[in-house]
Structure formats: structure tokens, C-alpha cells
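Thread: Modeling a multi-component assembly for a lab meeting

Hi all, long-time lurker, first post. My supervisor asked me to bring a structural picture of a complex we are working on to next week's group meeting, and I have zero experience with this. I have the sequence lines for every component (914 residues in total). Could someone generate the structure of the whole assembly? Inputs are pasted exactly as I received them:
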Amino acid sequence: MSLDPVLSRIDETLPAAMERLLDLLRIPSISTDPAYKADVDRAADWLVSDLRSLGIPAEKRETPKHPMVVGHVDGDGPHVLFYGHYDVQPVDPLELWDRDPFDPIVEDTPKGRVIRARGASDDKGQLMTFIEACRAWKEVHGTLPCKITFFFEGEEESGSPSLVPFLEANKDELQADIALICDTGLFESKVPSIMTQLRGLCGEEITLTGPDKDLHSGMYGGAAINPIRVLTRILGNLFDDAGRIQIPHFYDGVPELPEDIAAQWDALNFDHGTFLGDVGLSQPAGEKGRSPLEMLWSQPTAEINGIIGGYTGDGFKTVLPSKASAKVSFRLVGQQDPHAIRKNFRAWVEAQLPADVKISYQEHGASPASQMTTTHPAFEQARSVLGAEWGHEAAFTGCGGSIPVAGYFKSILEMDTMLVGWAKDDDQIHSPNEKYDVESFHKGIRSWARILDAIKS
Amino acid sequence: MSLDPVLSRIDETLPAAMERLLDLLRIPSISTDPAYKADVDRAADWLVSDLRSLGIPAEKRETPKHPMVVGHVDGDGPHVLFYGHYDVQPVDPLELWDRDPFDPIVEDTPKGRVIRARGASDDKGQLMTFIEACRAWKEVHGTLPCKITFFFEGEEESGSPSLVPFLEANKDELQADIALICDTGLFESKVPSIMTQLRGLCGEEITLTGPDKDLHSGMYGGAAINPIRVLTRILGNLFDDAGRIQIPHFYDGVPELPEDIAAQWDALNFDHGTFLGDVGLSQPAGEKGRSPLEMLWSQPTAEINGIIGGYTGDGFKTVLPSKASAKVSFRLVGQQDPHAIRKNFRAWVEAQLPADVKISYQEHGASPASQMTTTHPAFEQARSVLGAEWGHEAAFTGCGGSIPVAGYFKSILEMDTMLVGWAKDDDQIHSPNEKYDVESFHKGIRSWARILDAIKS
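Re: Modeling a multi-component assembly
Sure thing. I ran the full set together rather than chain by chain. Output:
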């Protein structure tokens, strides 16, 4: 079963493959917003029927929230499990989009052709690169290169509440020799990169209540406590002047970067000036004394993802509000325990609460950092074939984001994971006008064919 | 022209007076929200026709934003100008209202009958107490007790952008011996109170911009500055541990409370436990060492009236936002200069801005504190007759709120103002379920008849 005809087939059938992706992108599968539940379900159905069109007996598997899609196809050689997620981020602020986020378009830009839509890059476009590689292989050779389990999730952008129970309940069914995940990017938008470490995540929402009703700031101002004042005072203490997070024991389990990894990262010659310049910034904002790649890959963060309180409409209202709330998330590294982080954060907040201010919490996910087993043969097999596709030797890199599923595959399925993907830094995932380069999509499909070819042999 | 038949007439015609008020309350005249412009205009028309039904040649006077209503009626004795505002606060959070804020209802409560609607107390109900007193007087005596200018504003809840230009342009027309304003309340909901000092107000909105687009907190978190982090850090420094405001020169022009005033206030035996307990609080939150009445009446404040940034919808979004903003207001006392406060606040904020963070501002009104001329005869005339209506001797008090117009009457029209009103502490003005007691409305009308009777003689 040779590779070349598969690569040719991929080139010839690219237009049809793009049409299929646009079709999937038209489904607004926003998993965090209950208003879109039916659409998330529709995206799962779409994937089931697409896999079945490949002769793969896939099915939708219900969970308490959004369904999983699972399909198995037998074959010779090693058994790989491919994971991707078909849900997407919310689209707000909608007014910053140039067009309907769910009316995808292929357009030419100064940097090349792109597919523009919410989810184009994260993760529908990347997910489809693997399916399209399998489709071409099947069409050329009548079979897939190896035994494959397809596993798609619809809750990745909303904390994956059903993932752990589902993995535990289906541990035997989901066993494979290695998991492949396509939800990452090219280093500096050009170097194919296999991610060997990812940060974990702990999401937390706090709501402070002062007066039991909104008050007139003239009648009560000065004598009544304002919960926004308390919230800003507490969150204003999150970092010290050096940018170090002030929550007690926050850094427990944070390792110093090993010298060999530090050397590999230095060799990447990361251009942080361009990385930040592309988003209108110039100064790395992390802890003083850390390199930009450390800030992004090997150091933890505390980020206020949202805050609201009082009157936020047009004009002005002299209200002294009853409530104020914030969504806060922590990116975790090394052995940091997300549950301990949550507990310590809450204790730290409560220690700063003045009289009369009550607090309530809402949890939004918790996952530890992941370290990949780079000694697994698939890593070297993949690294060795990607250079030919992209014109740059593939590199082992870190990742600032969190892909909790990789950690769960290890802890629950006791299976190693290899993360490789084709997204670019300017894809604007989670932001308005998200896009995926046609180059990422096309070469991504070809890259999966190369990787499967290398793994099977 | 005796008073008693007027008071009897007021008692007999109360139901009709209430119907007129409900009619006015049905008009959603929210001045700060452009969506309600036509409704604000409709409320002005309603007042013009109501005054005309009294034989007063009133007219609507256009401004760049919302119209003023002006009417003159000649008569013997002193010339008073009565001011009230017919616009109202926004109604959000709407879900906390028990019914449509603009579908007024008269209902019985454990504390007596109330008129429930946005604006019932602030200020439509209070404004109408004066008109209804004039109506009864006219119906009994065929004329009004003295020369009166009616002057109603529709921008009081949105910073009064047109007020100063209008006063300057119509300085001669609006001259009177004294201005009467009904936009205040009873001390502790029972003692008739003539306010002799009011705090000023300076409203400011700041918007911080970090990255030029929303970012993924995994891809950029740690290296990219988060404007919510910066905003909370800056606003978290607004007060020191003793509750004193940290903006340089903020306290310039803040006088210590004169001993005679302090003695009068002590004599009021203010029950701050009940005042705060009614809104679910127990501890005065102002500067340590100040009495609760000082915190409310004679000390300045800094209040964050609104804050927003990042993702604030359901669920969670790991976004590193481009923007964060806050609406901040300062209550001013003594000789504090609102323009200097704005300038010093901006300088204080900018001194704390890190690299890469840009700031923009929006002004929301500026007015100095007011000190009334209690030696004007009207003050003693009013004080002497209010006790009979309310069963408590009237008191000279302070006010934590801002009624900028009183200051403008002094600075532009060179006219003294007397502030008296019938609102109660639990009227929930600016909050959901605002109400005005029928007792406030009824006795308020009778009180104005008594005051006009005392002033004319």
C-alpha cells in the first residue's frame, strides 16, 4: 500500500474535501451555551454520517450533556485512536466579525487562501484533515492503513463534563496502541511541531454579594460596601510587582525547566517580538526573569477571563450594585494539582472578604498538565516524515494551552498520546474572524497520510 | 386665602390625583438610553398639557437632547421657581422586578399602601405633589398663592448635559426669589427634612485596551497582558486599608464638619444599624473613624458603578480579552472641584498603566457640592409648618446624593434653593421594585400647600 497515489488523490479531491468542511462549519455547535444544544447534536449526526460514508460503522453515543461520536475500523498493523472535537467557542463579540461566523467562506488574503468561520481551525478543520486522509487512503487502497478508532467529543470548549465518565465507562472499547490528537499548531506558523508538554487548566467563577439589592450610590455611597470595589481589590492582589501569582502554595509542583528542554527551546529562536506584535503588543507580560517560551509553555498563569458588575449599558447609572462576579482560570504545569489550586484560590479570596460580603462559586473544569512519552516509536516516525511535507524539520515543542483529554487518555486509558496539528498563530481561534489556511488543511491531510504510512510499517 | 379648605380639597381629590400620577408613570422616560428618546418627549408633552389644564401657559422647550418644560403663572407675594425632573433611571436588572416597571400599581404592603413603578418616588411622584397642591389651591381660591415658575427637566438621570446651557440662555426668564426642589426624602422615613448640604458628583468611564483582539488564554496566557488584570489592579488601589481614597489631592477642599452641624446631626440619633440592616448589611464601609452620617453626608466617595470585560455569558470561555472598562463616580463635598478630581483620577490611572495598555475616557457629568443659604426666610417658614403635617419637628439635614441643579441655580441664576421632599429610605429608587408611599404622596401634597401658604404671607 504505497503513499504516493494517496497523496495524489488528496490533491485531486481537495475541492470536494473543502466543501465537506464548509458544510460542517455551517452548524453552530457552541457547546457552552445551552441555546445551541440541538446544533451540537446536529454536528455529531453530521460526523456519524460522514464516517459511515467511509464504510466506518460510527455511532452517536449520548451523554448527560453533548454526545460523543465513536467509530471503529479493523485493520493490520498498530491500532491508533484519533481524537478531535466538533464543538466550537461562542462567537461574541459578534460585532467584531466581518461576516456571519457560521456562514463559512473561502477567501484570498495577502497571506494566502483561508477558510473563514468559527471552528475552521479549532477544531473542525483539523479534525477533518484526519478524516480526509483516511478517505483518500480508502479510495486508493480500498482499506485503511491500520486499525483505527475514531473518537469525537462535543464538549471540549465547555470543560468536557462527560469525558471522564465516558472514558471510564468505555475503557476497554477505547483501548489502542496510541492516541493521535489534531488540535494544535505549527510552531511560528511554519515548523511542524509535535507537542510534548501541555498546561493544565482550572476554571473558577466567583460571585460576590454585598447589599441584598442594588442601591443609589448617593443615598448609600460611603456607608454601604460595594461588591465591585471588593472584587477589584481582591483580584488586584492576584500578582505581585514581579508578575508572580500570590495565592499561597500556587507554585507547589511547578518544576524548573530541564536544561535539555531549555536548550531545544532556545534552538527554536522564538521571535516573541513578532508573536506579540501580531496582536498589538510589545512586552512579554509574565513573571520577570522568564523567557517568553517559558511564560507560554512551562510557567503557570492566572487569567481573569471575564468580569461584570453594576451598570454596563450606554450612559451612566449611579448604582451601588448588589453583585459582582468574575471568571478566573489557571493554566497549570508540572505536578500542580487543579483541585488544590481551586481550594487554595477560594481560601485566598475568602481571607480577603470584608464584613457583609458573601461569596458563591461555580466550577468550570479542572485538568492537570500533561507530559508526553516521547520515547514511543510513533513520535520519531511522525517527526521523520513531516519535514518532507512542510520544508522544515519537525520539532518537539511545549504548548500553553490545555488539552485535558491527553491527560485523561494517560490516567484513565493508560495510553500515550501524540499531539500534532496544522493551525497557525494568526488563526484567531476563540476570537472574531477565526480562519484556517487552505495550506493547513491541504498539507494537513497529506501529513496525516504520511504519518499513518510511517506508523503502519 | 385660607389653607384649611385647600387641605380638605386635597383629601377629597386624592384618588383623581393618584390616577394622574399613574398616567405619568406609564411613560418609560429613561433619559440615559437613546432607545427611549420618544418616550422622554412624551412625558414632557404630558406635563405641558397637565399644567395647561391648570390654566398655566406651559410649553416644551427643545434642547440638543431632551426637552425642558417651562411654565409661568403670575401672582402676588414672593416669586418661587419649582423644579422637578420627569426622566427616570434604567430598569435593569429587569428580572428582579416583580412586575413591569412601567405598569404602575397601587398595592397594600405590611408598611402601608404604595404606588409601585419606576419613577414613582424619583422623581415623578414628588414632582406631582407640588402640581397637585397648586391644583387644589387653584380649585379652591381660583388662583395660586404666589407667583410661580414651573421648570421640569428630562435629563437629570443622565448627567443633565443641556441644563447649564439652558440656564445660561434663559437666565432672566428663570429668575425668582427662591427655587424649590422636591427630589429628596424624609429623614429615617419619618422626620420632614430640609436639606442644607448636598454632595457633588463626577462621573467617569475608562476603557483599557491591551491586545488588539481577543486572544486564546492558552496560546497567549502568560506572555500577553490582560486588560482586566490591569483594570482590577488599578481600581484595587482606589482605597487604602482605612478606606481612604488614594488619588493624589482627592481630599483638597474637603472641610472637617463644623461642631454646630455635628451637634445637630448627633441630635438626630441616626440608627445606622436599621439603615444598613434594611439592605442586608451591618458594618459602615466608609473611612475608619467617621460616623455613618459623615460617611453619607459630609465625606466624599469613590464608587465603581459598573465594570465589564471578557466573557460574561453562561458557561466559561478561556479568552484573554482585548478590552475592559469601568464606570466610576465620585461624590464630592465642600470645595472639591469636579474637574480637578477628573484630571487627578486620570493622572493616577495613567501612572499605573503598564506597557502596551492604552486607555480611553468618557465623561459622565461633573457638579460641585452645594451648601444652602439657611438664613433665607423660606427655610424657617417651611420648617415651622411641616411639623404639624408629619408629627415630627422638621430638621435641617445633609444629603449624600447629588442634585447638581441646586448648585447651578446658585452659580448661574444667583438664586437660593430649598430642598424638601417626601421619599422614604425603602423607596428603592434606582433599584428594582421602586415605590412611593401613598402617605408620601398625600402628605406631600398637603405639605406643599402648607409651605406655599407660609411663604406667601
